[in-house]
Amino acid sequence: xxxxxxxxxxxxxxxxxxxxxxxxxxxxxxxxxxxxxxxxxxxxxxxxxxxxxxxxxxxxxxxxxxxxxxxxxxxxxxxxxxxxxxxxxxxxxxxxxxxxxxxxxxxxxxxxxxxxxxxxxxxxxxxxxxxxxxxxxxxxxxxxxxxxxxxxxxxxxxxxxxxxxxxxxxxxxxxxxxxxxxxxxxxxxxxxxxxxxxxxxxxxxxxxxxxxxxxxxxxxxxxxx
Length: 225
Hints:
Helix 2 packs antiparallel against helix 6, helix 2 runs antiparallel to helix 8 (208-223) and helix 3 crosses helix 7. Strands 1-2-3-4-5 form a five-stranded mixed beta sheet. By secondary structure, it is of the alpha/beta class. The protein has a single domain, classed as Trna Endonuclease, Chain: A, domain 1 (3-Layer(aba) Sandwich), CATH 3.40.1350. It is 47% helix and 14% strand. It has helices at residues 13-24, 38-49, 57-69, 119-132, 149-161, 172-182, 187-200, 208-223; strands at 78-83, 95-100, 106-113, 138-143, 166-171. The radius of gyration is 20 Å and the shape is elongated.
């Protein structure tokens, strides 16, 4: 006789918090321990991105990087403003606007894409810039996919056409690696910021399993000989 398969009931909020607390106790156990190297940090993030349900992590990676470095960028405080996708769904957050305090102009916009950047994406970005009526000097696509040479060249060609709007296309991990080497002493600050954003995120955006996975991966990385 066939047995009916039953899914396990979801964990209660109390149980979920207890699991996170237990995993947190294994992170940063030695206060004066040597921080992870840049490459070990990048490897940790790559491992987390390979987990199931990680499609929104590129946004969190970039947000954590700018939050970690805001005090280092020319002494200017940067404000990060998350923008919704065109359909207005809060779950579809995908852009970061970087603004200087006291300046109402968005000088840089980062847009995360979990697919290859195409010419149409670049054209739509320029349309958004024109529609906003703000002088965006730098529009950065950060993608989880490789960047085709013809697309990179198309983006480069827009600089003269737009009178100085620069379009850049970076792969997510390449961006992070460059950032951590540039701000080498902030690599632990980046991890702490990323961890905080991941843990504070609603389960609809960052699942419980994804939160637990990061803490377990970080503990393992920091415990490695």
